[in-house]
Queue: 2 jobs
Job 1
Amino acid sequence: METNRAFPLNAYFDENHVNAATVERYGGGHINETYLVTLPDGKYILQKLNTYVFKHPEDVMDNMVKICDFLHNCVAARGGDVHRELLNVVYTKDGRHSVVTEDGGFWRMTEFIDHTKTYDVIETPEMFEECAVAFGSFQNELANFPAATLKETIPDFHNTPDRYRQFEEAVAENKADRLSSVAEEIAFVQAHRPVCNKLMDLLHAGDLPLRVTHNDTKLSNILYDTQTNKPVCVIDLDTTMPGLVAYDFGDAIRGGAGTAAEDEKDIEKVGVNFDLFDAFTKGFLSTVGGSLTELEKDTLPDGAILMTLECGIRFLTDYLNGDVYFRTAYPEHNLVRAHNMFKMVTEMEANRDKLDAIIRKYK
Ligand code: ADP
Ligand code: GN1
Ligand code: MG
């Protein structure tokens, strides 16, 4: 339990409420600091945004407010529960979407969505198919969102060639003096350099359209109802901005179709579960398939390989830089994560025919 004086609760509540509040660390995200605030009459999620990652956190919140307002209308129009099926920003007493504290901390609050949980490893293909429907529906609902009003919260977020450039920079700088221990991993990434360009080349050639995508479709960014085990809400809208559909498909496969957790230490347990790949494809294409071009559908497996490779490159880069981006629990954490991503890439590449056949089955 943390002392609530360390948090900007005064900006949101009167003195009595502040005194009655308890605050505890919550959730397992790699980026922001997340806390559960409990008051006698309600629960809230308070988050300190990671300003190393989000250089302009006010842009993140401006986007979030616009997206949540838009989703509010969608959920209300279909008769859904507007306090459960979307994130609701809690405003300060003077009507602001965020608080900047004296030490420069950037904070936001949302309503806590109770009786939900997240998963690090999915339990059944059915649950993963439903996850796909949830992410697909999120994309469908935002199809009419005015994309030009969104700010780019992390420039070049899924620009894989640029991620490769940052990796090369990290190798050259060797800031954490870890280079000598990762020769094999570096060779793996270098051998995959040509793969990094595929989707960006198609985008730049005008062959793939930009849509409003979530861009961080990992399993723990879906809240599942603890009673029904069905997805309730898509969360973590910090990177929702224009992107390729293959990013959302691919990142979800990366984070959910594995046979083990992202940071499983026993590499033997790490691999791709093709039944889960099948289930996600089924749910996703049944939801967004009607609005996708043939090429978008055909390049979904490229997205799965690319997002997994990109994430592995990002973990390895962060390891080389001394763990400055992702939250880590021990020194080799990012390296373990990178290994696991590269093993999944290898397995998907070796089974490309199988992945293509699954896409054909549902397209
Ligand atoms: P990060 O960018 O660090 O991943 P998230 O916004 O995804 O931050 O939040 C981290 C975790 O906190 C989520 O995985 C989820 O478990 C929990 N969480 C976040 N917002 C809510 C909410 N409004 N209601 C319930 N749980 C939430
Ligand atoms: C981060 O924020 P979180 O924990 O949901 C990261 C994703 C990575 C993921 C890997 C803003 O997601 O891009 O794929 O970790 N988010 C950001 O687990 O960088
Ligand atoms: Mg998250």
Note: The chain has two domains: 4-114, 125-362.
Job 2
Amino acid sequence: MDFPDARDRLTWRRPGGILGPVKMPPHPPSPAAASDPFGKELRYLPGVGPHRAELLSRLGLRTVGELLLSPPRRHDDRRERAAVIDLREGQTATVAGRIADVRARRISGFRHLVEVFVADETGMLAAAWFNQPWLADKFVPGERLILTGKVEVWRGRARMSSPEFEILESEDEAAELPDPGRQAACEPSYAELAFGRLVPVYGLTEGLGQRFMRRLVWRSLAYQADAWPEPFTKDFRLGRQLASMPEALRGLHFPEDPAHLAAARRRLAYEELLVLQLVLAQTRRRLVAQGAAGSFPVSEKLDARIRARLPFKLTAAQDRAVTELCRDLAGAEPMNRLLQGDVGSGKTAVAAYACLAVIAGRGQTAFMAPTEVLAEQHHRTLSKMLAGSQVRIAYLAGGLPAAERRRLIAAIAAGEIDLVIGTHAVIQKEVRFRKLALAVLDEQHKFGVEQRLALSRKGPAPHVLVMSATPIPRTLAQAYYADLDLSTLTELPGGPRKVTTRVVTPKSREKVWAFVARRLAAGERAYVIYPAIAESERADLAAAETGFKELSARFGRAKVGLIHGRMRPDAKRAAMERFRSGATQVLVSTTVVEVGLDVPEATVMVVEGAERFGLAGLHQLRGRIGRDRARGKAWCICVAGSLGGEAVSRLRALAKTDDGFKIAEEDFKLRGPGEFLGARQHGLPELRFADLGSDGALLALAKRDAAAIVDADPELVASEHRALGERLARLAAEQKSRAGVA
Ligand code: ADP
Ligand code: MG
């Protein structure tokens, strides 16, 4: 049985009902008629209509499938509805009653109290909220209210402090009464959905209420839960103690008890982890099956020749990474390695080593960076390193004149270039290598998985080395990067940097500039960073430009430079060059310097709007200063406009430690994996149900199962894997439409 379509609406809808009583189809949907829940649009459901459909789509909910897989924010335990007279101190209870009085007042100088008195048939209960004065406006005497919380006794009266609450919409009152008509239509009354059970509380948007959402979800469950395509056989499920899909969907929204909810979450978490691991396992398998674009053993003699080209002796950590990487390059399988290490840990040298090893074996190499600034810097570094050698280097970026670009592309295709350094331009369709054997991606978190794969497709599976200055917490690495081997640079050449980090409010700005002036007088240089999350955001750009004007007025026009993401590349380059040479001593910048500059004289960094940055981002920025140990101290000054609770703990964590891994873990804890990596950046689906902090065992299980499934049936064509295969196909299609990469 399917949803009624729009034509049936008139007969399905009864007067008076937004999601009012509706007759169920005569036969409940049978599991055999499994149909695609993602093909059923919510707007055709009775009682939804175009307006509500639009509101739902703002929540990312367009289909029944999306709705049912979108978990409520929480559940309120309203299994027991207590009468006020029966409340006992210390008990957690749910009470429903009418608001008798609302009082808001200031107590003891700086504390604020909102008190609401709620009466049921048996007595009066108080509810108290501290320091949330805005709540007072929410409560209107005469309205009905449900409270769930812990009972205390205050001045002889039962009271709840900061209980969960729900104000009943006016229709709800009627809905609380049994409704014979509804019962006949085999749909529960609203009272049965919202009381006497664990009640889901959904994330809402203006115009959509809990009542509507609960009924919509309930109705969708009734239509769809049993018909949800089940990707696992019964044996498979039982062996892993996984709930069935109908059980899980019901338990996710309207669980019978907390155990039901936990079982539901576990089932859904397992499935999403499995899908993720299948994607990774398949990717890996395809790469391995293609065979490497060549094996490149490094003899002792070659090793010595390469090292002679490097301007310094490698650190022990770099040596370890080189050893790991040489083992990969010599093998028959293509290397797929992530090199992670803090800003300044010397990843470039390790990458250069890899390139030279491959070039010595007559393979072509590509070295890709996310910004032109960084690509140019790599080009400069490597050209210097290879001066006087026979290695043919080319620089390929967006802004090249057409003729030169054509000439370069032809030379790359003819195999006349050994090392191509550039930006995204390197993975564009027209660029064909004669024999691409190694691809290096710097700052890999800026690239999506899709781009990484696009690069891998450029030849017969080149070796791939990706690099990141944002260390990835262990569980996250296992979940998202299972297809990568990991090398880590654990030390900085020259020892730890001495960067002092301070968090100040805008009030101290005057003092900050005075301090900057003193450092400049001592021959040092300063960055002033403005947030520009998307460079197109006008307001951000305007802030940087205003800052530039103010600082020019203060320090002298000639001494201050400006650089931002929307400048033309040559203008950017010129500004950068003036700062590097010391012609300007203050560089006002949006976050483009994050990955760009290496200027030893820079000792001060002022970050405006610091509360808007992620921890890892700030840590990376800070890595730009204090690079020259001989100069001693460096200062990172975070100017934070609004110091909300989360922003404070974030900035404090940053001030406390210089350990990139600790910071990454902290960031991960505070912001979760999605925010941490940025859904678009890592290009893989966000985890909704799994919690990488506590689902380690489930992840391990999913990983093992994924490996076994892909071993037995690589393309997931066997009948028992078909549903999983379809899930993956849908995922891939979504990603393609998002990434838009050749
Ligand atoms: P990142 O890991 O941030 O990319 P870089 O590769 O840019 O770091 O290296 C940071 C700085 O450290 C560069 O100036 C580089 O020349 C220097 N460097 C790298 N390795 C060593 C080493 N083994 N000894 C001394 N200096 C090094
Ligand atoms: Mg680098």
Note: Residues 278 and 428 are 28 Å apart (CA to CA).
